[in-house]
Amino acid sequence: EQGRIHDHNPAADHPERPVGFGRLQRKEDPRFIRGQGNYLDDIVLPGMLHGAILRAPVAHARIVSIDTSEALARPGVRAVITGKDLEPLNLAWIPTLSYDVQSVLVTDKVRFQGQEVAFVIADDRYAARDALESIYVEYDILPPVIDARKALDADAPLVRDDLEGRTDNHIVDWECGDAGATDAAFAKADVVVKQEIVYPRVHPAPMETCGAIADFNAVTGDLTLYETSQAPHAHRTVIAMVAGLPEHKIHVISPDIGGGFGNKVGIYPGYVLAIVGSIVSGKPVKWMEDRSENLMSTSFARDYIMQGEIAATKDGRLLGLRADVLADHGAFNGTAQPTKYPAGFFNLFPGSYTWEGVYGKVTSVYTNKAPGGVAYACSFRVTEAAYFVERMIDRLAIELDMDPAELRLKNFIAPEQFPYDNKAGFEYDSGQYEKTMRHAMGLIGYDELRQEQADKRARGELMGIGISFFTEGVGAGPRKHMDILGLGMNDGAELRIHPTGKAVVRISVQSQGQAHETTFAQIVAEEIGIPPEDIEVVHGITDQTPFGLGTYGSRSTPVSGGAVALVTRKVRDKARLIAAAMLETRPEDLEWEKGRWFVKGDPTAGKTIQEIALAAHGTMELPEGVDGNLDAEVTYDPPNLTYPYGAYFCVTDIDKGTGKVTVRRFLAVDDCGTRINPMVIEGQVHGGLADGVGMALMEIIEFDEDGNCLGGSFMDYLIPTSMEVPDWETGFTVTESPHHPIGAKGIGESATVGSPAAIVNSVIDALRPLGVTAIDMPCTPARVWEAMQGNARPP
Length: 795
Ligand code: MCN
Ligand code: CUM
Prior knowledge:
Helix content is 26%, strand content 25%. By secondary structure, the chain is of the alpha+beta class.
């Protein structure tokens, strides 16, 4: 176990080149730091045309007419496509990932500001963009539904009149837990506290926006589609279904991706329009959105209004928890999560604690806003669930006048209770919560901080200490429970060792910055002893990789990582048979050490994996039942999710005059089981913590009452820079997943899931002397200042 990252001896970071797990420098960095990455907008195809989308200026309006004649007459313009042109192709509407439909180009009415109305194809980007101004659209403006709380009112305007038989804006009701057992738990309680907690709409805002280049070959019928996609295989299948093109003729290529954060899971109208554009023009067509288009129209995150009720005994034993959620899904239900989980994995809302009863209910509604909801390192809504329970625990601690660390320690699930049924439908695999919590309290110096706070309070200064102890569930998933559009959430892997002992591993997941080219090579290296620099990781190209569902929900390590470990073991087993033949002995008489098989009791008699690889391709007589070459393939169906967790501590100072919050210290102690590359893990955690500071203090996509998006640029949607974040402190414990082939759990979203509650709890803790018990994100200076005046919402 280690302490703070900046206490490291940097020389110890690279003791030697690890053959398996360890701090290996990222293989992808030489090309990235030299500006040699190959992102979508770097790709230029011969004869390529450019597309641009005309977007609706209003949130809700019937289209009366669209006049494209002037735009068509402009120099360089090749075509202008409207919804009417797509209707005969059956492409005006396409399915969403949640069995709804979404509009590609408006045919009837606009349902959110920024919705796609027309598509111009021109010789260059400027001609295409300029032509948008020459398209004349007459709108008949309708009253919009903006506030989700009013979406189910009897007189609310109907957003989805396109859906047959629909008379209201209700999407789905979902529940988990046991209402009866929860009522019984509440009946026993000494203390019950209610609290409304709002997780506002935010946006993943990856550095690279979304885009696609479609290249349709009318002679062969092949469609090559370059796109910013976190899930190239799933996209290919969906495009085959939607466009009616044969799947084997579609070649999806997901090049280097400049951040995804869940923003690149869905299929956007622009991708479909690039395809249509290439089919009609006979040329490759590129579409690349700008920042405002990204913020205003692509998958947002959260937008959960949560009513909480928590029950406990007066000495702080937790009894019951209720969550009643109103979820704003925007104009189309395009949330991306396993089919049976319309509220994602909100089932994690009981958190890391034992309860006598829990009950959760989520109602989702349509509004006149952009669709989305499941994105931004959310682990399928565990962000909302973890934020909810960690705020509720602190709210109870205030009511009980109890230390929030002590309250948590008193109610943790104990190590011997795993596998643990969380009473809301999920079975946690492993955890040592108290150990991790105490480790974190030691690293941050919890008791000293409380003393410092007491001294400062005596002087009238505002200092807060906030805690979040979260449990995530990542690695969707077992195919019997989990699918997206009917596709089981499994992943394939193929490993080939060449005659000279160099290897290629082909995976179905797609890195957007997570360093898969490094860490998946490390898994192979650990299992077979070939150095990671001799292992090439191929991903992102559907023609060259096995089928699988892609990267989101931090599922790459839990699912694809499992596949890679197992395929390597399969190759190792084959190598054993060949080695036995080479050594003229029986396979049972061989023993493995990293990189070679040798004869038990005679370590000098052995064959390295490289020697075996050469022999496998050579002229030797292979054993019965063993074919030539050294390769294998598997598809991995994980038995359960993995459940990473963490103990996060945040120290804030608040300026009494301005309400400005400064995050002075932040400690994240994570447990993601077996650690493949600690440096990559720390990078993932640092990034997620910065996201947390952004959401807790700055980021929000708001709308005015007409439905105008008030967060459509980085002037209005504030993301944190190095100025707003502290020098991160990290630590870890290791509790292996008992069912994962290498004991690893995911880490890619932990910090985003865990950090917002720690920061907001810290802000509330700082404001306690002023009587504040709640505040909603983002804790901007204005909001904090209002709370200090006693105007916090809710009281
Ligand atoms: N890792 C490790 N040891 C572990 C677990 C993970 O070394 N025990 C390493 C993995 O090998 C991988 C990285 O950490 O290189 C993240 O692994 P994992 O937790 O499996 O997550 P995914 O690779 O599936 O990444 C998805 C996750 C998600 S869903 C979002 S959202 C997010 C995140 O990753 N988007 C990111 N982190 C991101 N980081 C960057 N740079 N860019 C994004 O878009
Ligand atoms: Cu929910 S964001 Mo990530 O799962 O791609």
